[in-house]
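Quarterly update from the structural biology core.
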Amino acid sequence: MPSRTADDLLYAADPVIWCREILGFFPDSWQCDLLRSRSRKIILNCSRQSGKSTTCAALGLHESIYRRPSFGLVVAPTQDQSSELMMKFDEFRSAVELPSDYLSTDTKLAVKFANGNRFVARPGSEKSARSFSAVTLLLEDEASRVLDDLYNSVRPMLAVSNGRHILMSTPFGKRGHFFKIWSEERDLWQWFEIPAEKCPRITKEFLEEEQRTNPWFEQEYHCVFMDSEGSIFSSDLFRSLANPAVSVLKL
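Predicted structure, tokenized:
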């Protein structure tokens, strides 16, 4: 481990200060709340390009350096998507002065530190992800597109470690575990809803143009779960058919 100076102790205690002074990353207000949170279950329903993956990459690096044991695992629908978060992790890592022998393994999809901590990115395959155990930080990127089989297979990895699970995504229709958690189980999670207007890097002019031309505008930028494209009947109608007490049709 790096020597623990007074500054280092401060950085260990407050990841936001560490991000600003070491990484040169200045988090937005909601990102500060996320970085400082110790909740075990967090769900992020965010606009595109709001900075959710960047924040979680910084969080993963902070825990890899300052918490032990730490095993961060990234899962996503595809290897390209999990690799993207790993790339952000590596970019931040290059800003940190670590001893030359501090890394024992370093590949495009896995880093093992000399203190035994690991940070690994895996593609969206239930078979390729289920072999891990004792995960302390499980990051599920683009969670609205992650198959339920993968979600169900990675959850037990947190059982012994009592690890943390962070779901982050933009909505993708009224389906899957991300929608179910957001619509029915949100009280069990610390939740963040971040529309595009909360991201100072997205301009008003860009959003005005997108609103006129992008049919998925509300879903992509305002965190709204839309019915799947091409659906003849709405998901609300199907729920009403399953439960006669619910009425959505007005004649």
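Residues 108 and 177 are 29 Å apart (CA to CA).
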